[in-house]
Design goal:
- The chain is mainly alpha-helical and 917 residues long.
- It has a domain of 270 residues: Alkaline Phosphatase, subunit A (3-Layer(aba) Sandwich).
- The chain has 36 helices and ten strands.
- The strands form two sheets. The chain has an eight-stranded mixed beta sheet with strand order 6-5-7-3-8-9-4-10, with helices on both faces. Strands 1-2 form a two-stranded antiparallel ribbon.
- Helix 31 packs antiparallel against helix 32.
- The radius of gyration is 31 Å and the shape is globular.
- One of its GO terms (molecular function) is CP2 mannose-ethanolamine phosphotransferase activity.
- Belongs to the PIGG/PIGN/PIGO family. PIGG subfamily.
- This is GPI ethanolamine phosphate transferase 2 C-terminal domain-containing protein.
C-alpha cells in the first residue's frame, strides 16, 4: 500500500512541479495602461520650438486594412503568387504602391500578431496558449487612439478582433476562426459587407480579416490545389476595393490608404505558430502610399512597426507602450522636416519606455538617442537644411530606435527564477523518490526534520546564488505570498518524509552490474535522449533520435535471434519459430522505412514530399479511400478477435462497424475520400453526432459487461476494463485523425503484439514497458508531430463542433496529439493483465511498470528544466526550447492522468476482490 501512495504522491507533485516551472519560465507581461494623448506630441525639440500642427497632421482621410490570414511572403512573390494574383502584382509596379517584407516574431498565431500590429508591443509566448481565449486589450493601441480622436471604425472578419476590442467598432460582423474546414463561407461573410460599406461615408477606418487561406493551409497545406483559387479570390477583392478607391479619389473623398498584409505566415506542412522563415515573413502592400522605386529588393520592416506608422499617417498619438519604429518607406514624398519630426516623436516615445530599465543611462542605445537628438538640433539650427545632413539624422534615429527596441524586447521577457528553482528542486526530489524502490517501514520524526532542515537551507542557498538575491522576508508581507511559501515548505516537508524512508545502501534496487544487454540499452537511452535536448538541432530533429533508438533495438534483436539460429544450426536443432521471428523483425524494419515517410516532420526535411501529401492530392482520392477502408476494417477485425468469445462480442462488432462507418462518412463530408453512392452527406455534422450517440451506447454496453464480469469472473475485471479503455481511445483517436494517419492505429496494435511476443519468447519481458513507450514515441512522430507548435493539427480540435467550446477543443487536441503514447501505455498494461493470473503478482508488476514509466518520463523532463534554465538567453530559446518544454509538460501531465486512472481501476479491482462475493 505504501508503494501505491508513494506513486500517487509523485504523480501529483510531479505535475504540480512542472506547472510551477512553466508559470515561472513563461513571462506574463503586465502592460502599462497609460493612454497617450495629443499633449504627448512634442512642441519642442530640446529647447527649440517647432510648429507641431504643421509637422504632424493626417496624411489620409480613410484607411482600409485587409488582413489575409496566413498570407506568407511567397504567396505574392513567387511564380504561383504572380499567376494567382496578377492584378495585385501589376499594382505593385506603380509608384503609389509599396511592397514591404514584414518580419514577425514567434509565436506566429493570430491573437499575438493582432496585438503586435495594434499596440506596437512584442507579445509573450504565453499569448500562444491564451490564443484559445482572447481577453480584451486594455493597454494603449491604435484603435483606441483612432476612436478617441473621432474616427469611426468598422470591422468584418475573424472574431478575435471583437474579443480583443469589444467596444471599438461602429459596425461589425465576426466570423469564427476555429472551424478550419470552412474555406468559403468564412470569407463570403466578409466580402458580402463590402458593397454596403462602399455606399456609406460615416466610417474612416475599415478592417477586413479573411480566414479562408489559413483554413486551407491547416487542412491541405500551402501546396494544395485549393491555394491558387483562394489567392485569386483575394486578388479580385483587392481589385474591387482599389477600383472604389479610385472612384473616391476622383470625387474628392481621398486620399485613402489601402493596406494588405498577412498576420503570420504558413509552414510548409500547413500549420503555424513556430519560427520558420515561411511562418515569420509576410508581405505588407500599401496602396496609396508613396514609395521609392530606386531599389530592386523589397524593404524590410518589423510587424510591430505598423502601430507607429499608422499613427503618423492618421496624425494620431503613438500608443504609449509602443516599441515599433515609423516605416518611412511608406512616406517617401513627405518633406524631410516632417520625417525628422515623426522620427523624433517616435524615438522620444520609445525612450520613455527605455528609461524604465535599470541602468538605462549606461546603455549604448541611450547615448545613440542623445546623439540623434543633437544631430537633429544642429540640422534645425543650420542655415540651409541640406538633404544629406537630414538623412544622416534619419539614420541616427533609426539606429537608436533599433537598439532601444532590441533591449526592450530582451528585458520584457523575464522569468521568475524563484519559482523555476523551486520547481526544479521538487522535480529532483520526485525523481529521487522514484529511483529508489527499497524503503524503511518506519522512520523517526527526528530523521525527517533533519533532512527537512538540510533541504530548506539548500533551497534558500540555491535561490540566493542563482538569482543573485537573498530570499527576502518582504515576500511574507503579502497574504497570498505567505500562503504560497508556507505551502511550498509543507510540500518540502512531505518530500523529505518520503526521502527519509529510502534505503540508500540498496542503490537503485537494480544495480548497473546486473543489467542485461536489453536493459542497459534503455537505461543509457534515457540519458542520451535527455542530454541531446541541450542542442537546438536535436530538439528540432528529435524524431531522428527515436527512429535511431527503434532501429537499433530491432537490429540488436535481429542479431540476438540470428546468433540463436546459428547456435542451433550447429546442433542440427533449428526451430521454425526463430526463422519466423527474424522475418517479423525484417518486416518491422521495412515498415519503419515506409511509415517514417508518411509525414515529413522536424525542421530540416519537412519540406520534402511525403506519402500524406501524395494521398491528399485530388488524383489520389481512390488511394486514400482504400487506405481509410483498410485501416477501419483492421481496427474492427482486431477488436473482434481479441474480444471475449461470447455473444456480447457480436453486439460489440456491430457497434464498432457503426462507429467506423461514421468515421468514414466524416471524411466523406470533408471531401477527402470518395463518398458512398446514393448517400448525401448531412449538414451540421450529423455524422459526428451519430458517432457520439453510438459511442455513448458502446460505453453503456461496456459498463454492463463489466458489471457481469465483476460478478462472475472477478480476476478478469482489470483486463476487461483496460480492453474497453483501449477500444474507446482508438475509436475517438480514429475520429480525430487525418485520413492518411488512420492506418497508424491498427499498425501500432499489430507491432506491439509482435514485439511483446518476441520479448516473451526471448525471456526479456521485463523491458516491456520501456519498449512500448519507445514505440509510442516512434508512432507519435510517424503521425507528423514535432516540437514545433506549427505542427499541431488544429483541425482535430473542431471535429463536429458547431460552436466555440475551448475545453472540448483542448481535449480533442490532446487526444489527437498524444494518441500513440497513451495507446502504447494501455496496450502494455493490457498485455500484463493477460500474462499474470495471480492478483497479487499482477498488482506488483503493474505498480513496477508505472514506476519505471514515471522514471522514463520524469528524469528527462527534470534534466530538461536545468537545460532550459541554463540556456534561457539562447538565440532559439523561444522558437525551439520553449515549445519543447510545452510539449514535454503536456505529455507528462497526460500520462500522469492516465496512470492515476489506472491506479484508481486497480483500487476498484482490489475492492471487488475483497468485498464482492
Amino acid at each position: 500500500m505504501y508503494k501505491n501512495i508513494r506513486l500517487i504522491y509523485t504523480l501529483i507533485i510531479g505535475t504540480f512541479s512542472i506547472a510551477l516551472f512553466i508559470y515561472g519560465f513563461f513571462p506574463i507581461v503586465h502592460y502599462d495602461n497609460t493612454i497617450a494623448s495629443m499633449n504627448d506630441i512634442p512642441q519642442f525639440i530640446d529647447n527649440v520650438r517647432v510648429e507641431r500642427d504643421a509637422l504632424y497632421k493626417p496624411l489620409v482621410n480613410k484607411v482600409i486594412i485587409m488582413v489575409i490570414d496566413a498570407f506568407r511572403w511567397d504567396f505574392i512573390s513567387d511564380s504561383v503568387g504572380k499567376a494567382a494574383m496578377p492584378i495585385t502584382n501589376k499594382l505593385i509596379e506603380n509608384p503609389f504602391v509599396c511592397l514591404l517584407q514584414a518580419k514577425i516574431e514567434p509565436p506566429t498565431v493570430t491573437m499575438p500578431r493582432i496585438k503586435a500590429m495594434t499596440t506596437g508591443r512584442v507579445p509573450t509566448f504565453v499569448d500562444m496558449v491564451l490564443n484559445l481565449g482572447s481577453e480584451p486589450i486594455v493597454s494603449d493601441n491604435i484603435l483606441l487612439q483612432a476612436k478617441t480622436h473621432n474616427h469611426d471604425i468598422i470591422f468584418y472578419g475573424d472574431d478575435t478582433w471583437l474579443k480583443l476590442f469589444p467596444t471599438m467598432f461602429k459596425r461589425y460582423d465576426g466570423t469564427t476562426s476555429f472551424f478550419v474546414t470552412d474555406f468559403t463561407e468564412v470569407d463570403n461573410n466578409v466580402t458580402r459587407h463590402i458593397d454596403n460599406e462602399f455606399h456609406n461615408t460615416d466610417w474612416s477606418i475599415m478592417i477586413l480579416h479573411y480566414l479562408g487561406l489559413d483554413h486551407i493551409g491547416h487542412v491541405t497545406g500551402p501546396f494544395s490545389s485549393l491555394i491558387k483559387p483562394k489567392l485569386t479570390e483575394m486578388d479580385n477583392i483587392i481589385a474591387k476595393i482599389y477600383s472604389k478607391i479610385l472612384h473616391w479619389n476622383e470625387n474628392g473623398i481621398g486620399p485613402i490608404l489601402f493596406v494588405i498584409c498577412g498576420d503570420h505566415g504558413m509552414k510548409d506542412s500547413g500549420g503555424h505558430g513556430g519560427a520558420t522563415l515561411q511562418e515569420t515573413t509576410v508581405p505588407i502592400i500599401a496602396i496609396g502610399a508613396n514609395c521609392s522605386k530606386s531599389y530592386t529588393l523589397p524593404k524590410k520592416i518589423a510587424q510591430l512597426d505598423m502601430a507607429a506608422t499608422l499613427s503618423v499617417i492618421l496624425g494620431l498619438p503613438i500608443p504609449y507602450s509602443n516599441f515599433g519604429s515609423v516605416a518611412l518607406d511608406l512616406l517617401d514624398n513627405l518633406p524631410i522636416s516632417r520625417k525628422l519630426f515623426a522620427l523624433y516623436y517616435n524615438a522620444k516615445q520609445v525612450h520613455t519606455q527605455f528609461k524604465k530599465l535599470t541602468d538605462y543611462n549606461f546603455q549604448y542605445a541611450h547615448h545613440k538617442y542623445i546623439d540623434a537628438v543633437k544631430l537633429h538640433l544642429a540640422w534645425l539650427k543650420s542655415v540651409n537644411n541640406s538633404y544629406e545632413t537630414g538623412y544622416d539624422v534619419i539614420a541616427a534615429y533609426r539606429s537608436a530606435l533599433n537598439e532601444m527596441k532590441e533591449l526592450l524586447v530582451k528585458n520584457i521577457l523575464k522569468n521568475d527564477t524563484h519559482l523555476m528553482i523551486t520547481a526544479m528542486f521538487f522535480l529532483c526530489h520526485v525523481s529521487w523518490i522514484l529511483l529508489y524502490d527499497q524503503y524503511y517501514p518506519l522512520v523517526t520524526f527526528k530523521k525527517v526534520l533533519k533532512l527537512f532542515m538540510i533541504n530548506l537551507l539548500l533551497w534558500i542557498m540555491i535561490i540566493s546564488f542563482w538569482s543573485f538575491e537573498i530570499l527576502s522576508l518582504s515576500l511574507f508581507s503579502n497574504i497570498k505570498n505567505c500562503v504560497f511559501i508556507l505551502s511550498i515548505i509543507g510540500l518540502l516537508f512531505l518530500n523529505c518524509y518520503f526521502l527519509a524512508k529510502i534505503k540508500y545502501h540498496h542503490y537503485f534496487n537494480i544495480k548497473l552490474k546486473n543489467f542485461k544487454t536489453f536493459e542497459w540499452i534503455f537505461f543509457y537511452g534515457i540519458l542520451i535522449h535527455a542530454i541531446s535536448l541541450s542542442s537546438s538541432s536535436y530538439v528540432e530533429e528529435e524524431h531522428q533520435t527515436w527512429y535511431f533508438f527503434w532501429v537499433s533495438f530491432l537490429v540488436l534483436l535481429l542479431c540476438k535471434n540470428s546468433k540463436t539460429i546459428i547456435m542451433q544450426s550447429l546442433k542440427i536443432r533449428v526451430h521454425s519459430t526463430q526463422f519466423l521471428i527474424s522475418i517479423e523483425i525484417l518486416l518491422l524494419l521495412t515498415g519503419h522505412r515506409i511509415f517514417r515517410t508518411l509525414n515529413s516532420t522536424g525542421n530540416k526535411y519537412n519540406h520534402l514530399p511525403d506519402i500524406a501529401g501524395y494521398l491528399m492530392k485530388e488524383e489520389s482520392k481512390v488511394n486514400i479511400t482504400v487506405f481509410v477502408i483498410i485501416a477501419l476494417a483492421l481496427l474492427v477485425w482486431i477488436g473482434f478477435i481479441h474480444d471475449n468469445k461470447s455473444i456480447y462480442r457480436w453486439y460489440a462488432l456491430f457497434l464498432n462497424i457503426g462507429l467506423s462507418l461514421c468515421i468514414y462518412l466524416r471524411h466523406t463530408n470533408n471531401q477527402t475520400i470518395i463518398p458512398i453512392s446514393l448517400y448525401h452527406p448531412f449538414k451540421d455534422v450529423k455524422e459526428i453526432l451519430i458517432f457520439w450517440n453510438l459511442f455513448t451506447i458502446f460505453c453503456i454496453f461496456s459498463a454492463y459487461r463489466l458489471i457481469l464480469v465483476a460478478k462472475r469472473n472477478k480476476t478478469n475485471f482489470l483486463s476487461y476494463i483496460i480492453f474497453f479503455l483501449i477500444q474507446a481511445w482508438i475509436m475517438v483517436s480514429a475520429l480525430l485523425h487525418q485520413p492518411y494517419n488512420l492506418i497508424l492505429l491498427p499498425i501500432q496494435l499489430i507491432i506491439i503484439c509482435i514485439i511483446n511476443s518476441i520479448l516473451k519468447y526471448n525471456n526479456i519481458g521485463k523491458i516491456n514497458i520501456l519498449i512500448n513507450a519507445w514505440i509510442g514515441n516512434v508512432f507519435y512522430f510517424y503521425q507528423g508531430n514535432s516540437n514545433s507548435l506549427a505542427d499541431i493539427d488544429i483541425a482535430a480540435g473542431y471535429v463536429g463542433l458547431q460552436s466555440y467550446r475551448p475545453i472540448i477543443i483542448g481535449m480533442y487536441l490532446i487526444v489527437n496529439t498524444y494518441s500513440a503514447p497513451v495507446l502504447a501505455y494501455l496496450l502494455n498494461m493490457y498485455h500484463r493483465t493477460l500474462s499474470y493470473k495471480s492478483s497479487h503478482d499482477l498488482h506488483y508488476v503493474l505498480l513496477s511498470d508505472n514506476r519505471i514509466y514515471m522514471i522514463w518520463k520524469l528524469v528527462p523532463v527534470t534534466i530538461y528544466t536545468f537545460i532550459i534554465t541554463i540556456q534561457k538567453h539562447h538565440l532559439f530559446i523561444w522558437s525551439v526550447f520553449a515549445p519543447k518544454l510545452l510539449y514535454e509538460s503536456m505529455y507528462l501531465t497526460v500520462m500522469n492522468c492516465i496512470i492515476l486512472l489506472l491506479e484508481t481501476i486497480i483500487l476498484i479491482q482490489y475492492i471487488i476482490n475483497k468485498y464482492i462475493k
